[in-house]
Design a protein that fits this description.
CATH class of the largest domain: Alpha Beta
Radius of gyration: 29 Å
Shape: flat
Number of domains: 3
Order of helices and strands: EEHEEEHEHHHHHEHEEHEEEHHHH
CATH superfamily of the largest domain: P-loop containing nucleotide triphosphate hydrolases
Number of helices: 13
CATH topology of the largest domain: Rossmann fold
Structural class: alpha/beta
Number of strands: 12
Largest sheet: 6 strands, mixed
CATH architecture of the largest domain: 3-Layer(aba) Sandwich
Distance between the termini: 24 Å
Helix content: 40-55%
Length: 435
C-alpha cells in the first residue's frame, strides 16, 4: 500500500466525491483518491484485482447487501490525475445509488472531498502547476468558444512556458553575478562578469512587460468584454440595448433621465463573452439620484473595453476614445454609422462592426497568458525586481543578486511552488466538489 503520510508526517486521507453532475442521470462517476483508494474500492467490489487502467464490471456490496453494478477503473500512483492511487466508480446515476455508495465509502474509511481537493492534490504532487489548475477551473466554467480555447491553452501550460523561460534567463543572470561575487579574487574570472547579465535582464524585463501589456485583453476574454452604451438623455440608448438583446431588458420612456442605474445584458459576439451596459444619460443635473446615475455611467464608460456613443438630433457628443463606435440614431432608414434604434434598421451593420472590433482586439488572446489579477500582480512584482536588478548591477552586484532572487520568488508563487497555503485555500475553494 502507498504511504499514507506526507513528508511532514501528516496522514494523507483517502477522499471521495461525485465527479459528475448531481441529480438523476444514466451514469454517475464517483472518484476515490489517496493511499487507501484501491483497498476501499475492493471493500465494496470484492477482493479480486483491479487491473491498472482497465475498465472492469463489478457488483458493489456493503455488509452483504448489493448496492449497484458498476464499472471500476484503477489508476495507480503516480500516473493518475492527482498523482495518488485513484479509483473511479461508474455507477447508475440515481440519487439512491449515489447515496448508498457514498455511505458505503464513508463506512469503509474514505473521507468526503472538499471543493477542488483532487486538483489541489494534483498541484501538490507535481502533476500540474497552479496556473494549469486555474486553466482547468476556467475550462469547466467556460461559456463561450473563446473562453474554452483560452482555458484549454492555460490548462496545457501556455503561461507555464512563458514564466519558465523568464526563470531560466534570470537564473543565467544570477549565475553571472554570483560568479563575480564569489570568485572576485580569482585571476580567470573577469572583473565585469556580472555585466554580462545586463542584456539578459533587459530581455527578461521586456518579455514580462509585453505579457503585462496583453494581460487586460486576456482577462477580458476570461471574464467578459464590457461594452458601454453612452450618450445624452433620450438618445435612444435603452432602445438600442433592447434591440441588441432581442428583449425588453431596459425601461424605455420619453422622460429624460429614466435610466438611473447601469443595466447589463450578457451576449456572445464573435465567440467571446460580452456584457452590454445601458447607462444613464450624460448631462448636468441637480437631482441627486440622477447625478449618481451619471457618475456611474461615466465610471462604467471609463472601465469598459469599448464604448458605443449614441448621438441624436444634435445632442451633445459623448466622451469617446480612439477605436470606439460613434453612432447616430436616425428616424428613417439607417446608413453607415447610423442606427434606427426603434425599428432596428442598421442593427446588422452595428453587429458586424462589433464582431470585427472584438475579433481584431481580443480573438488573439485565447492563447492564454496573465488571465487573472493574481497573475498580473506577481508578474509586475517580478518585472519591478528585474528592472531593479538591472539598475543595481553596475553599482552593487550584491543588491542585483537579491533583486533577482525576489523576482524568482514571485515567479515561484505564480506557479504555486512557494509556501502559500492561504493562496491555495482561496483558489481551490472556488472549484466544484469532485474536481
Amino acid at each position: 500500500m502507498a504511504s499514507a503520510y506526507k513528508a511532514t508526517g501528516v496522514r494523507v486521507e483517502t477522499i471521495f466525491a461525485l465527479a459528475s453532475a448531481p441529480g438523476r442521470a444514466g451514469v454517475a462517476v464517483i472518484r476515490l483518491s489517496g493511499p487507501d483508494a484501491l483497498s476501499i474500492a475492493q471493500a465494496l467490489a470484492g477482493p479480486r484485482a483491479l487491473p491498472a487502467r482497465r475498465a472492469v464490471l463489478r457488483v458493489l456490496r456493503w455488509e452483504g447487501e448489493p448496492i449497484d453494478e458498476a464499472v471500476l477503473i484503477h489508476f495507480p500512483a503516480p500516473n493518475s490525475f492527482t498523482g495518488e492511487d485513484v479509483v473511479e466508480l461508474q455507477c447508475h446515476g440515481s440519487v439512491a445509488v449515489i447515496d448508498a455508495v457514498s455511505k458505503a465509502l464513508l463506512a469503509a474509511g474514505a473521507s468526503p472531498a472538499g471543493p477542488g481537493a483532487f486538483t489541489r492534490r494534483a498541484v501538490e504532487n507535481g502533476r500540474m502547476d497552479l496556473t494549469e489548475a486555474e486553466g482547468l477551473m476556467d475550462l469547466i466554467d467556460a461559456r463561450t468558444q473563446g473562453q474554452r480555447r483560452q482555458a484549454l491553452a492555460q490548462m496545457e501550460g501556455a503561461l507555464r512556458q512563458s514564466y519558465e523561460g523568464w526563470k531560466a534567463e534570470l537564473l543565467d543572470a544570477l549565475a553571472q553575478i554570483e560568479g563575480e561575487i564569489d570568485f572576485a579574487d580569482e585571476a580567470d574570472v573577469p572583473d565585469a562578469l556580472s555585466h554580462a547579465a545586463y542584456p539578459i535582464l533587459t530581455d527578461v524585463a521586456a518579455r514580462i512587460d509585453a505579457a503585462l501589456q496583453r494581460a487586460s485583453r486576456a482577462q477580458a476574454v476570461r471574464s467578459g468584454i464590457d461594452i458601454a452604451i453612452i450618450g445624452a438623455p433620450n438618445a435612444g440608448k435603452s432602445t438600442l440595448l433592447n434591440q441588441l438583446a432581442g428583449r425588453d431588458a431596459a425601461i424605455v420612456s420619453p422622460v429624460a433621465g429614466t435610466t438611473r442605474d447601469v443595466v447589463e445584458v450578457p451576449m456572445v459576439i464573435a465567440g467571446l463573452p460580452v456584457t452590454l451596459s445601458d447607462t444613464a444619460g450624460l448631462r448636468e443635473t441637480d437631482d441627486a439620484v440622477e447625478h449618481e446615475g451619471v457618475r456611474r455611467a461615466l465610471d462604467r464608460a471609463d472601465r469598459a473595453e469599448l464604448r458605443i456613443g449614441l448621438v441624436r438630433d444634435g445632442s451633445a457628443e459623448p466622451p469617446l476614445q480612439e477605436g470606439d463606435i460613434r453612432l447616430v440614431n436616425v428616424d428613417g432608414r439607417a446608413g453607415d454609422s447610423e442606427i434606427n434604434a426603434k425599428t432596428g434598421s442598421g442593427l446588422d451593420g452595428l453587429l458586424h462592426r462589433l464582431e470585427d472590433i472584438i475579433t481584431a482586439r481580443f480573438a488573439g488572446q485565447e492563447s492564454a497568458g496573465l488571465t487573472r489579477a493574481r497573475h498580473t500582480r506577481l508578474a509586475q512584482d517580478a518585472l519591478d525586481a528585474t528592472r531593479a536588478a538591472a539598475r543595481h548591477l553596475s553599482v552593487a552586484p550584491e543588491f542585483a543578486s537579491e533583486d533577482i532572487r525576489r523576482a524568482l520568488r514571485s515567479i515561484d508563487e505564480l506557479a504555486g511552488r512557494s509556501d502559500i497555503e492561504e493562496v491555495f485555500d482561496r483558489i481551490f475553494s472556488q472549484f466544484c466538489v469532485g474536481k
